[in-house]
Amino acid sequence: MSGEKKSVSEISRSVYDRKGKAAPKFKVQSGLTPEIIRTISDEKNDPDWMREFRLRSLEIYEETELPAWGYPLDALNMDDIVTYVRPDARQSHDWESVPDEIKSTFEALGIPEAERTGLAGVGAQYDSEVVYHSIKKEVAELGVVYTDMDSALRGEYAGMVREHFMKLLPASEHKFLALHGAVWSGGSFVYVPDGVEVPIPLQSYFRFNAAGAGQFEHTLIILGKGASLHFIEGCSAPKYNVANLHAGCVELYVAEGARLRYSTIENWSKNMYNLNSKRATVEKGGAIEWVSGSFGSHTSFLYPMSILRGEHARCEYTGITFAGAGQELDTGAQVLHLAPNTTSHISAKSISKNGGKSTFRGGVTVSENASGSKISVACDSLMLDSRSRSDTVPVMDIRAANADVGYEAKIGRISEQAIYYLMSRGLSENDAKAMIVGGFAEPISKELPLEYAVEMNRLINLEITGN
Amino acid sequence: MKLPLLEIQKLNVNVGEKLILHGLDLTINAGETHVLMGRNGTGKSTLAAAVMGNPAFSVTDGKILFDGENIVSEPPDKRAKRGIFLSFQNPEEIPGVSLENFIRSAVGAVSGETPRLMRFQKELYAKMESLGLSKAYADRELNVGFSGGEKKKSEILQLLTLSPKLAILDEADSGLDVDAVRVVAEGINRYRNGGNALLIITHNKRLVEDIKVDFVHVLRDKKIGLTGGRELIDTISDGGFGAVGEAAE
């Protein structure tokens, strides 16, 4: 990527924990009823098809059971969750028009600064609605569309949105997608026309401020033939004593020869249930690259799926998960090889500490059609103490005769001798551990844009040293 | 009277249940160079580990005084800050951490102030060159894929950069070819500034050929069994430990 930066300013921990004081303009009652769904639909001025889609999704939600696997979700009670919180702000295209209280939150997170110095466009969501969305003029002139989803639903690309919305991730697939279909709000729509290469990244930032609420943003990205884009997603929230829920949905369409990189640093607070769904479909010769850092949340279920539909389509997944005290993070990647000579590389790392639990769940399916496909899966887990836990659940279903499949897994405890070696050079025990863990995470951080790499290293330091 | 830099008194060291050192005494003054010899398994590396504070070794009795203060219960980082350095026989590999970042962090930790990048790099690269390490090694992951010789040179590079009061070199020459031994010996001599001290653990006469040695100790029966001048090195090199009164192995 061009426009690479050499230095970034640091953000202090207190930034994530600041609770915005601005009272929301409107919020629905907690729980889920057809009335609440209709209210959300009215508030958002949905087209009729979307209103029906929401109500149908609610029916599916009510008929669907919770997943029977993974970490428990008992403490998540939907009756207590407020599914829609409208901030007291209209969506704006310039930061000056964003209310001070909300603007200062994003300023503290460094978003306007990042926009000035190295992004092609920025979307900023506060609770359920997007409060800021903007794209650089020269990028818009290439025909690139980057808007909030509400505008996309009604605007020039309404047909395209309707054609793709929750088609890759249907509401019937699992309970939280059904929930998403019913109450979704916010998120971004991106369309990059054929042959257009967006030179610097677009970034959407999701800030969740309300206690006991849910955030259900929808991200829809469509790349034309030969297009390329780097999209960055960031998220954070202050900590509350009640459960919060994030059930977003990301649908990515990568046309022939197109290339999409989707980078995420997730730093939800530790009362969050992060039950997010992400999926990409990739046509002939196209590529999807996922870069994912999962640090926050109480419980996560997150497995981006890549569907390789066209010959020579590729996917790469590079992810790291850090589970600290009280965290149960179940993450991984799924790939569906449906065409010949498709390639997937999954590289997953996990760190667990102070009783944190992390599970890598990988799923690779190679259909009979996908002859000559290459698959490599590597997972590497580091446990910082004997109370922590790390599990690996790789599932491979290989039906093509001549697929080339590689798998390796390493699970280990942090080396006492390595800690001693670094301490003998003057580093404190915590600094030594942070250095070892930072080195372990380095293959992922080097894939991230500089701001995010710095943020990730800082999050690691924070988790280990507490400052 | 001036305090010794290092004064070890009646030291007992265990690894698990096993007593490795028993009643060991050793005094090193500022400016002195001591060589420690002894058969394999007599506890030379254990002594180095005990002075550095390796948590896998427990001091069950005795004192280790550094500048007059007992450091026995201090963690290794505190000892490093006091000015103790150990060159490891087999330094750990730390993936994802570059040699340069590691040394810069170490200098920051020991001195309390992280050195300015440009100036630090300039000095580091000059020291690397003097040890025959190309600049490219600064970006290499610490000890990962380093040959035996490169690991030793990396340890000496750290010694030169951190400039401690007391350097313990645990077989800084093992596995090195003749030229590499010379480079390491030159590095050791560059470290000397008259006020600092060395404890060199070695089997190799060549390493200390060009180094001024004040005392040579032989570790046997869990303590310092014999102390002499540099002539002891030649005696042992030529005649083995039998030549200094030990029973045949």
Description:
The complex is a heterodimer of chains A (467) and B (249). Chain A has 467 residues and is an alpha/beta fold. Chain A has two domains: 14-302, no CATH class; 416-467, no CATH class. Chain A is 25% helix and 35% strand. Chain A has helices at residues 14-17, 34-44, 48-63, 100-108, 111-118, 137-140, 149-154, 158-164, 175-183, 416-423, 429-445, 450-465; strands at residues 26-27, 85-86, 121-126, 129-135, 145-148, 188-192, 202-207, 214-215, 218-223, 228-236, 244-246, 249-254, 259-267, 272-275, 277-282, 287-294, 299-302, 305-308, 314-323, 328-337, 343-352, 357-366, 374-383, 389-398, 404-413. In chain A, strands 5, 6, 8, 9, 11, 12, 14, 15, 17, 18, 20, 22 and 24 form a 13-stranded mixed beta sheet that branches. A ten-stranded mixed beta sheet of chain A has the order 4-3-7-10-13-16-19-21-23-25. In chain A, strands 1-2 form a two-stranded antiparallel ribbon. The longest helix of chain A is centred in the C-terminal third of the chain and has 17 residues, at 429-445. Chain A is globular. Mean pLDDT of chain A is 92; it is low at 1-6. By secondary structure, chain B is an alpha/beta fold. Chain B has one domain (6-244): P-loop containing nucleotide triphosphate hydrolases (Rossmann fold, 3-Layer(aba) Sandwich), CATH 3.40.50.300. Chain B has helices at 44-52, 76-82, 99-111, 117-130, 148-162, 178-191, 205-208, 231-239, and strands at 6-15, 18-28, 33-37, 58-66, 69-70, 84-87, 94-98, 141-142, 166-170, 197-201, 215-220, 223-228. Chain B has a six-stranded mixed beta sheet, sandwiched between helices. In chain B, helix 6 (178-191) links the parallel strand 9 and strand 10. Chain B is globular, with a radius of gyration of 18 Å. Chain A binds chain B through residues 415-418, 420-429, 431-432, 435-436, 438-443, and chain B through 52-56, 75-77, 79-81, 85-86, 88, 91-97, 102, 105-106, 109-110, 141-142, 158, 162.
